[in-house]
Design goal:
By secondary structure, the chain is an alpha+beta fold. Among the domains are: 315 residues, alpha-galactosidase from lactobacil brevis (Beta-galactosidase, Chain A, domain 5, Distorted Sandwich), CATH 2.70.98; 110 residues, Immunoglobulin-like (Sandwich), CATH 2.60.40. Helix content is 19%, strand content 30%. It has a 9-stranded antiparallel beta sheet with strand order 5-6-7-8-19-15-14-11-12. Bound molecules: alpha-D-galactopyranose (GLA). Alpha-D-galactopyranose binds next to loops.
Length: 753
């Protein structure tokens, strides 16, 4: 059998071209030069159909063979990657190999985010390359080109495709999974990341069962409820060892993920566009580019898999100046004022923040239109000077004079019925004629699949950005999509096409924003982390991780987020206590330790905290600046599991050269006379010595009088890497419930005395 082998530094992906033109999947795993076609076993299997051109050979059945792009209608009864219906209602497609080519460089997709190769990589011998395989169905005229992008140094392989209707009539795509991985054997667990608004990305690990397990989103965004990232891990795989495969979808709209174990214990894993109500119409001559999925494999456990995705997203998905430059420490007024502010009030918040070293003030929702509550204003992107009491440019200027940058919140995809925009263009919102729409946060969604709508909103917002000195944008999106109906002259409605067109419209908006304002840092947001995906990170290098700012809840949310997404992508703020979402009170130090595992900022009025707390804020900002390079560019290690370790949470950042590590611990459930907990570090050099240069703890009230720092136990001593990893670091007894500890270790260099 002819093969195509794709090699990355540590992995091999092998495709087989069957003599009858079926594209078979031979292998994905540890790097090998071996011809893996010996793995395929062909037997006469009852009730598994045989292709007609196999003649009397009853051993050839696609129902039992691993495939690259399984189609419905070929005798494979497992979940198909692809299915097409024609105008008569006939389902099925039989795609056969036509040709393939390999070329240097990584493919890109029009209007869609993709993993890209760095300029500097192009000069390297082991630069990225692209495999294109053309498949065609002679009968229907459907043609598919599969794209495989190989980034050898990253150990990442990406997949996408373009579907072309080269026939005469319309076709309707019913299933479109751009990335399928078939496994011939193995006992696997599925790890996926479910949640809800203010509690996103909880890790769930479940055994893969016979039949299908699936999740996805039909909300128009990737959603709080399910994340377009999943891992298939062998049963024994842990954080530190064992085989696992990850798939990250670079797409911010509806999606489906499936894993299916079949009758022969083979497993199929696939990621792609939402299959519910898909029916995507492709007229003759039209084509559909399928959003990209990035895959990775490692035999070294879940931490290593996360590090691969972190490196990929940080360096080859995120773009722009802020990819490498430290993000400014910001203060956002949302939880300090909500919608009730004036320019003067904002200036008072900014003034105090500036004194403490905060570098940017972000003015959140409420500065535009008639936005005094959330029933009105969205859609009218003109400054509400009456409310502010001054022009926005003046506010930004005054903040600039304090030595701070200025940032602004927008929610371009939305409209309130009580707005000028809606009064002028009611047809621009999604609504089904004759039916009352479903409201979400009292707002409707603009039809971003229509270019004139995107044009208008962009023009309005650019009008503000052109006249105000803005360095940052928080781009929000606060409801799910319903009532999908494009109110254009065309009466035929195609749900999937409109939904996909909407996402393309959002991407177009963002691309225009980036092109016109290349120095503006854009933070994504959708009620916190409702659109936290690798697609969005192509446009916005950070995303507000959750509307839940409670430090203890955030530990869990950030833990789950870290499986796929780099720490630099996580917008994370210190907020007031009692926390507005949970009512919990935690120490300021704890809140800062948790918020530092991200792109750091504040979300409270710093005038309302005590003098000693303000001194602490100053110190936190200095600490963040000291650690940011390790936090953003080092390796992140999960040192606890929220499901199991109820007494303490811990995580660390380790320098790429393993020479430095801030270790972070938060005590969770406290018990009287409790056993001592030990945190085993990871990623250090076993044979090296590390000096604990600093140990910080929550400030504890001492007999109700002046606060003091607790006795230090670790600081000043030297430890072996092996000891820190093997025996661990004791969590001091004095650390009370929800109190934190941050310990800084630096490798002792041989030249040191
Ligand atoms: C969303 C965001 C918040 C805030 C509000 C403003 O909920 O996640 O951070 O910006 O909108 O309305």
């Amino acid at each position: 059998m002819k093969q195509i082998s794709l090699h990355s530094r540590n992995t091999t992906y092998q495709i087989g071209i069957h003599r009858l033109g079926f594209l078979l999947h031979l292998y994905y795993g540890e790097r090998t030069e071996c011809d893996m076609s010996y793995l395929l076993q062909e037997y006469d299997r009852g009730f598994s159909g045989n292709p007609y051109d196999a003649g009397e050979d009853r051993t050839l059945s696609l129902d039992a063979l691993p495939q690259e792009f399984p189609c419905y209608g070929t005798g494979d009864f497992r979940s198909a990657a692809f299915n097409v219906r024609n105008e008569q209602g006939v389902h099925g497609v039989d795609l056969r190999y036509v040709s393939h080519q390999i070329r240097r460089g990584k493919y890109a997709l029009p209007g869609l985010p993709t993993v890209y190769e760095e300029e500097t990589d192009l000069r390297k011998e082991q630069g990225a390359y692209t495999l294109e395989v053309t498949l065609a169905d002679q009968n229907s005229g459907v043609e598919v080109v599969l794209f495989y992008g190989v980034l050898p140094e990253l150990d990442v392989i990406t997949r996408s495709a373009v579907v072309r209707n080269s026939g005469k009539g319309n076709i309707f795509i019913n299933r479109m999974f751009g990335c399928t991985l078939d496994f011939l054997s193995g006992n696997y667990d599925l790890l996926h990341f479910h949640g809800r608004h203010t509690m996103e990305r909880n890790v769930e690990r479940v055994p893969v069962m016979h039949g299908k397990q699936s999740f996805g989103s039909r909300r128009g965004t990737s959603s709080h409820q399910h994340n377009p990232f999943a891992i298939l891990a062998e049963r024994e795989t842990t954080e530190d060892c064992g085989s696992c495969y990850g798939m990250a979808f670079l797409y911010s709209g509806n999606f489906s993920f499936e894993v299916e174990q079949d009758q022969y214990r083979q497993v199929r894993m696939q990621m792609g566009m939402l299959d519910d109500m898909m029916d995507y119409q492709l007229s003759a001559g039209e084509c559909l580019y399928v959003p990209e999925t990035a895959m990775a494999y490692t035999k070294n456990g879940l931490s290593d898999l996360s590090h691969i995705f972190h490196r990929m997203i940080r360096g080859h998905v995120c773009r722009g100046r802020y990819k490498t430059v430290r993000r400014p420490v910001l203060i956002n007024n949302w939880e300090a004022t909500y919608l009730h502010f004036t320019g003067e009030k904002i200036l008072r918040i900014a003034e105090q923040a500036a004194k403490l070293g905060v570098e940017m003030l972000v003015l959140d929702d409420g500065w535009f239109g008639k936005r005094d509550d959330d029933n009105s204003g969205l859609g009218d992107w003109s400054v509400n000077e009456k409310k502010l009491g001054m022009p926005l440019a003046e506010l930004a200027e005054k903040i600039g004079e304090m030595g701070m940058q200025f940032g602004l919140w927008i929610e371009p995809e939305m409209v309130n019925e009580d707005s000028e925009l809606y009064r002028q263009h009611p047809d621009w919102a999604f609504r089904i004629p004759g039916r009352q729409p479903c409201r979400g946060r009292n707002q409707l969604v603009l039809d971003f699949s229509r270019k004139e709508v995107v044009d208008h909103i962009f023009k309005q917002i650019a009008g503000v950005l052109d006249t105000v000195n803005v360095s940052y944008i928080k781009m929000d999106m606060n409801r799910s999509l319903t009532d999908i109906y494009t109110q254009t002259a065309e009466s035929y409605q195609n749900y999937a096409k409109t939904m996909h067109g909407y996402v393309l419209g959002v991407y177009d908006f963002l691309e225009r924003l980036i092109a016109r304002y290349p120095n503006i840092l854009i933070e994504g947001c959708s009620g916190g982390g409702g659109r936290f995906d690798a697609g969005m990170l192509y446009y916005t290098p950070q995303i507000w991780c959750s509307d839940d700012t409670d430090a203890i809840e955030r530990i869990r949310i950030q833990h789950g987020t870290s499986f796929a997404y780099p720490i630099s992508a996580v917008g994370s703020h210190v907020s007031a206590v009692p926390n507005h979402q949970t009512g919990r009170t935690t120490k300021l130090f704890t809140r800062s330790v948790v918020a530092m595992a991200g792109s750091f900022g504040y979300e409270l009025d710093l005038n309302l905290i005590s003098e000693s707390e303000r001194a602490e804020v100053k110190e936190q900002i200095a600490d963040y600046k000291k650690y940011w390079n390790l936090i953003h560019n080092g390796r992140y290690y999960r040192l606890h599991d929220p499901e199991r370790d109820r007494e303490a949470a811990a995580w660390s950042f380790v320098a790429e050269d393993r020479g430095e590590m801030p270790l972070n611990v938060v005590k969770l459930d406290a018990h009287g006379n409790a056993p001592i907990n030990y945190i085993c570090c990871k990623g250090l050099e076993a044979g090296a010595s590390y000096r604990c240069v600093e140990e910080k703890r929550s400030v504890k009230p001492y007999h109700g009088s002046e606060p003091r720092r607790d006795r230090k136990q670790l600081e000043g001593r030297i430890y072996d890497g092996a000891a820190l990893m093997g025996a661990g670091v004791p969590i001091p007894m004095e650390l009370g419930e929800y109190e934190a500890m941050q310990v800084h270790f630096i490798r002792v260099e041989e030249s040191e005395p």
